[in-house]
Records
---
Amino acid sequence: MHYFTYKGNELYAEDVPLEALAREYGTPLYVYSKNTVLRHIKAYKKAFCDPGGILCFALKANSNGAILKLLAEEGAGADIVSGGELFRALRAGISPARIVYAGVGKTAEEIAYALKKKILMFNVESGEELEMINRVAGGLGMKAPVALRVNPDVDPRTHPYISTGMKKYKFGVPVEDALEFYRRAAGMEHILVRGIHQHIGSQLTEVAPFRDSLEKVLNLIGQLRAAGIDLTHLDLGGGLGIRYSKEETPPVPGELASGLLPLLKKVSGLTVIVEPGRSIIGNAGVLLTKCLYRKKTGEKNFVIVDAGMNDLLRPSLYGAFHEILPARKERRGSQVADVVGPICESGDFLARDRRLPIVKEGEILCVMGAGAYGYSMSSNYNSRPRAAEVMVDGDSHHPVRKRETYKDLIKGEL
Ligand code: LLP
């Protein structure tokens, strides 16, 4: 559910017409709906936090300070994968006691930074990383709280680039090696074994893979208990999908919780952590872009817009579908077209062979579901300044990031 809807012929973000925002701030422009974000946070809190769990927002989905501040005010924690994300989370006021740190390539400097800031736990992805954490913690005279990221070898039935919990991918430690890993960890002087972590993929549209994975993890917890290793935290990861197209019907957080929490009755005394990114911010953001030109070749119709793969990479990288709506509805015919950006690559498109209302030059189009992995994956490719971002709250709006300038492009160059 989100608050981007047509009122009459005009598409609104909450109570603000998107065309007016495009006029005021220019395009390409990311627009977020504060009340959509709050609604999603509330749904997660009800489903997982009320029964005692912790919500850790996955910063990689969107790390704009205004969004993080909103999450911090709502008491959310953070799932981070770099020192930079730790910096952003702390700066936004997120409590380090609710920060979990995953990723296969944490550096010694990043580990030391997180230790000094006293995060909740490192989600460790390999034996060598565990040794490094032990060494760095030893150097600081500290004990590092860790969880093992288990690779349960479950197919999440999503795009291969965003699948993680199968053996062929680089993430986590195979479930059959986990007991041995925990034994080693428990014997290390500067390691405090705290939890267990799974994250099997992103944009999952069914509960079943989450359940299959959790069953394997719960089995392992039983074996660990029998071996005298007691955990306090169970991190279920993120990955709940959103509705990009009408064919997708992902469960809502409450349905995910109803599917998983009964399984947890088998084990007591574990604090559950969830790490959603997309399902908090994905549908809470759109990308506004202006049609620059139209072009017809013998083969195709092209709608050339001012947002490219540097602004929203998902269609190019994953072949991802994002609905595209006109900011102003009008009576007109339709045509099948490719919506493409200005980048010098044939892979630069926002939509391919899409049936759309016939677009006019100068018209504002709205790319839906762009709040997650939109701005956060954007770049300066083709020396394009990155877009501006705006937050809408009811009938008010305020900029949360300035559009970059040409000068920003060369900042730091020597
Ligand atoms: N936890 C961990 C350890 C993760 O690796 C991720 C995402 C999440 C949580 C959050 O997953 P979410 O709830 O957002 O699905 N760029 C891709 C998505 C990559 C996801 C990477 N990991 C995309 O645009 O679809």
---
Amino acid sequence: MKLLVTGGAGFIGSNFIRYFLGAYPDAEILNFDKLTYAGNLQNLEDIDALPNYRFVRGDICDAEAVERDLGEPFDAVVHFAAESHVDRSIAGAREFIRTNVEGTLVMLEAARKRKVPRFLHVSTDEVYGSMAPKESATEQSPLAPNSPYAASKAAADLLVRSYVQTHKFPAVITRCTNNYGPYQFPEKLIPLMISNAFESKKLPVYGDGLNERDWIFVEDHCRALDAVLQKGRVGEIYNIGSGRPVPNIGIVRSLLKLLDKPDGLIEFVQDRPGHDRRYALDDSKIRHELGWEPKVDLDAGLEHTVDWYRKHIDWVHAATSGEYQAYYEKFYVKRRATLAEL
Ligand code: NAD
Ligand code: DAU
């Protein structure tokens, strides 16, 4: 299989590329990524020299560049590229509409023109909005996004749906819950808490800490995407989750325990505006239809994650200091040029 992956230098995209090339060593991947603050090529240092992996720096909103890079035949597009952080969408929504909505439109148009036989659109459970206690969203639940980020993802999902209906476009949509694991940028809850705790800094918990999220280990999400890519039905939506929403404060306390740091580091801070109280999904469709289920339970996944961050303290420092942003110009371009000369 030859894939065009957008946003492959981010958290889930880089984990997906590593997973996919490990599972299918004959596969080919072109990673198309703008390298925004969230894109980090250090996430893929171990993959970069593989002959069946290529990176191209580009913006999904740039129709000309996207159409040029889709010039060769691909079996599928796996579309991760997005602005992904809710707090940033509250500070400013414009970039979210540009990348998540307009960028998705560019990708859809280019893939349609090139007749790419499959388009996997990676979306989120946030499009369903907040769930009442014991309630969970099915794929038929109404869209009720509450943050500009979630609204931009819901808009993109609707565009994908319209292409399926209008153009018989071969797209599938996935909606996953909160991911965690290696290479997650330390602005999201789990890596932020780990990196702050390393330095014995305060851990800012929004509101009363009782908002619930259904955490899934990133590799379980990657396996689900693989299942949907290979066997998902065109035009369908597949929810992906672990089925166990947990309050944020529970996650933070578990992390402190694993890190052997005191609960006194916890600081309750002002709540996020429009903060969704609870996310929960009914993901029985993917489990029954495609035979997927998560393999990593939360305790084991958190332990593995803390261990990974401990062993990759240089990655954490580069990410928190901003050094990683110089990596592309300083090392990557030079290394590629040297390789090309050899
Ligand atoms: P991320 O922020 O870590 O990575 C996003 C990547 O997209 C970065 O590499 C960035 O450089 C790239 N990008 C951003 N704008 C771009 C543009 N205009 N052109 C090309 N590339 C661009 O995000 P993530 O957490 O890995 O999420 C990936 C996808 O999965 C997103 O679509 C997100 O909505 C979805 N999702 C995330 C989660 C989660 O818990 N993180 C859960 C469900 C769904
Ligand atoms: O549900 C899937 C979504 O999960 C993805 O679509 C998003 O891309 C991803 O960012 C994530 O969104 P959340 O807003 O749920 O993730 P975040 O890590 O920002 O926050 C998780 C919870 O922790 C949320 O209830 C807010 C809270 N939080 C977060 C931060 C950063 C805190 O209490 N303190 C913090 O400092």
